[in-house]
Amino acid sequence: MPDAAPVDVPQPGTPAAPPEVDATTADITAAYKDAFRGHPAGVAVITAEGPDGPTGLTASSVASVAVDPPVLVFSLSTNSGSAGVVLGAPLFVVHLMDARGVALAKRFASTGSPAADDPIWGTLPSGDRYLPDAASVLRCRPLSTTPIGSSTVVVAEVLDIVVGLDRGEPLVYHNREFHSLTDRSRLS
């Protein structure tokens, strides 16, 4: 067995040096995707009423911006299909999903939305269609949209909220897969 090369082991309390990256040859897009693959995010389904009925998509970019007034933000990676309908709608519904909603999240992550008469849809008092199986439902109106490269950032005011009474374990998207967080995953 050959001798192993010596390894520098940092002393306790000494921060580890960041990995070296050759910025001249690194593919920044691939590195960016890889970095965020390791960063878990909550899962939401965003729906809107289009000319052909309700449509939607799964997003992992939804975040809270402010509480008073309640404002959220998300980004969409294209301006066509379901994303185009959401971007063109005067109102849309953001569904925050728990682990029990993974089938819905997967369904809206693929091409084609469920038909208007599909039993997954319910109707809010406002008349907007929504997914009753979501952990929380936020009816929103866009405040601003900002195109950035091939994506559009949407800032939206939350008009109405329905919080589910019986929430399941949180659903997160990590390394291109859905995961649930359990009490066993708690670190503190």
From TrEMBL:
Signal peptide start and end residues: none
SUPFAM superfamilies per record: FMN-binding split barrel
Residue ranges of domain Flavin reductase like in the record: 36-180
Keywords in alphabetical order: Oxidoreductase
Highest taxon, organism lineage: Bacteria
Region annotated Disordered, chain positions: 1-21
Pfam family, one: Flavin_Reduct
Name the UniProt record assigns to this protein: Flavin reductase (DIM6/NTAB) family NADH-FMN oxidoreductase RutF
Species annotation: Curtobacterium salicis
